[in-house]
Design goal:
Length: 324
């Protein structure tokens, strides 16, 4: 991920089919070295930016754009393309309306680690590039080299799909993924009491802000069972209708209620999680939410022999499993 990657992205965008109306890509965030996702028009290609700090998943934006007319070009890493594929399987997006510019991804930077490791003030940083095993940060005529291993987003260490499986054009050489649950296997070695204590401590820190649900590209329900604020009620809703809505959680934020919230939320991702890590990045309390997602993914692989890359949705496959 360096300036050459960005130039190739711009080059491919200049060759887009004439029926492309939007480009979902990254632009530089004002006052910071990282990028944010934006919906651009084909004549705004020069605004595009890309670096190891281009970590967000564009799938949710693409899904929203399906309400508009025209074709959509999207710049997608492996996990992004996996989320797009899942939304296609669930009939939330139409593949024939997409033009996917795939990025073979070596991993992205954990912004929290980066802020602690960099010696410059964030607004002073001019560029961030990944060259080999080092992140090169430039500012004020100076250069800082940071080992990539010190700032890599941890989930990238276990990436199954660094190269998109579905794309119209690919930038970068294909990379091999790996099915690695060594981190979960280590955690499973703890006895039941230790695991329970660990998760109760984690859940006690949750403020139930619902940022993890809100940012997930696969949490698109208009009404959410574990987010009462998301229920379709208004001052005009009859009292008996309000009373009929399920109340899974209490109004207070407690470790036990938070546990119910996170377990139900994660179970809805069974066989669906793209592994992008948006939930963990968005969490203001820095909770290890991917540990829950990866544990469930391990169960789905081992018990049901299912991969999110299969064409048939996971729940549909459950319906055709033989008895026993």
């Amino acid at each position: 991920m360096n300036s050459e990657t960005l130039e190739k992205i711009k080059e491919e965008c200049r060759k887009l089919p004439d029926d492309v109306s939007y480009i979902v890509g990254f632009v530089k965030k004002q006052g910071e070295p990282r990028e944010v996702l934006k919906v651009l028009k084909p004549d705004e290609i020069d605004r595009l930016s890309y670096s190891p700090l281009s970590f967000n998943n564009p799938a949710r934006i693409v899904m929203d754009l399906m309400k508009t007319d025209g074709k959509i070009a999207v710049i997608a890493k492996g996990c992004d393309a996996r989320a797009l594929k899942q939304l296609e399987k669930e009939e939330k997006i139409e593949r024939n309306r997409l033009y996917i510019i795939g990025i073979s991804c070596p991993g992205v930077i954990d912004y929290r680690k980066f802020r602690n490791a960099v010696k410059f003030r964030l607004p002073e940083i001019e560029s961030v590039e990944l060259v080999g095993d080092e992140v090169i940060v430039k500012a004020n005529g100076e250069e800082q080299r940071i080992p990539f291993s010190e700032v890599i987003f941890e989930n990238c260490l276990y990436c199954e799909q660094p190269t998109p499986k579905d794309y119209d054009v690919l930038i970068g050489e294909p990379r091999e993924g790996k099915l690695d649950f060594s981190d979960i296997e280590e955690f499973e070695k703890l006895d039941r009491e230790e695991r329970w204590s660990y998760w109760m401590d984690v859940f006690s820190k949750c403020i139930r802000c619902h940022a993890c649900r809100q940012v997930c590209p696969l949490c698109y329900c208009e009404e959410c069972l574990v987010d009462p604020s998301n229920l379709a009620v208004s001052p005009m809703t009859p009292a008996e209708e309000k009373a009929a809505y399920p109340r899974v959680l209490g109004k207070t934020v407690s470790a036990s209620d938070n546990m119910v919230y996170h377990l139900i939320r994660v179970l809805h991702h069974a066989g669906r999680c793209a592994g992008c890590g948006e939930c963990e990045r968005a969490c203001p309390m820095e909770l290890p939410l991917l540990k829950l997602e990866r544990k469930l993914k391990k169960v789905v692989y081992e018990v049901f022999n299912y991969s999110p890359d299969e064409e048939i949705p996971f729940l549909s496959k459950l319906d055709i499993l033989p008895e026993g």
